[in-house]
Amino acid sequence: MSILRSRVVVITGASSGIGAACAIAFVETGAKVVLAARRAERLESLVARLESMGGEALAVTTDVTDEDAVAALFARTVERFGGVDVLVNNAGIADSTPAENASLALWHRVIDTNLTSAFLCARAAIPLMRARGHGRIINVGSISARVPRKESPAYTASKWGLDGLTRALAIDCRADNIAVSIFHPGIVATELGGGISSLPDDLVARPEDAAGVIVHMADLPDHLNFYEALVVQNKIP
Ligand code: NDP
């Protein structure tokens, strides 16, 4: 039986792509899921689908760059499920703007969405996990945190920053039995992935592939941390 059975998993960016696939994959293990993103209708229809699978799911419309909204997300999670065991910091946006054309507002939007959101969610989740005696935070990075894409300084910086945040939190949270890790996908066929790649479908991963890796990283005994995964498609164009 999966260790995730009955555990509470908060997934940001759950309205599409990797996050939505994660919600399905976690429910298949018996976990309860909390879905956070801005598009309320998408979240509600996913909740209906998860419930039709026999799962328990809560949708909380959340802009993860908003400090108060993140606080409300975790308050609603505690109210409904009593705590949180796993946090998947998956929300993100892509950007392909060379530095000289990028406004400061664009820079802030990318950094806030891809990096500051993970800080805000981790900050809210850590005391709740400490109270449970265990916890797991999985950040969704990118191959761009290893091999920078051309003309994407904000995105690349956000993902390198997320890598740094992961390392820092992993050290700080160990003593509380909270494992912090990072998953770097290659190109995945999602709304975001489609926007950054013109590769044919059979040369990119599916959202379910990425979700499978995230569940695999979460489905471990509490004393183990699958610290880092970098998963790319094996086929070469
Ligand atoms: P999608 O565009 O399908 O999903 C992105 C998710 O993030 C959506 O659910 C979106 O929901 C949510 N999101 C964006 N901004 C916010 C916000 N301010 N507040 C709350 N939620 C937000 O793309 P992917 O599934 O591909 O992306 C998931 C993660 O995977 C991202 O972190 C991305 O960087 C990473 N990644 C993806 C790759 C790929 O090739 N697809 C490659 C490497 C990494 P909503 O708009 O409803 O708020």
From TrEMBL:
Pfam families: adh_short. Keywords: Oxidoreductase. PANTHER family: 5-KETO-D-GLUCONATE 5-REDUCTASE (PTHR43669), ALCOHOL DEHYDROGENASE, PUTATIVE (AFU_ORTHOLOGUE AFUA_3G03445)-RELATED (PTHR43669:SF3). The keyword Oxidoreductase applies. It comes from the Bacteria. This is Ketoreductase domain-containing protein. The lineage of its organism: Bacteria, Pseudomonadati, Pseudomonadota, Alphaproteobacteria, Sphingomonadales. It catalyses: 2,5-dichlorocyclohexa-2,5-dien-1,4-diol + NAD(+) = 2,5-dichlorohydroquinone + NADH + H(+). Belongs to the short-chain dehydrogenases/reductases (SDR) family. GO terms for molecular function: oxidoreductase activity. InterPro entries: KR_dom, NAD(P)-bd_dom_sf, Sc_DH/Rdtase_CS, SDR_fam. It comes from Sphingobium ummariense RL-3. Residues 7-191 form the Ketoreductase domain.
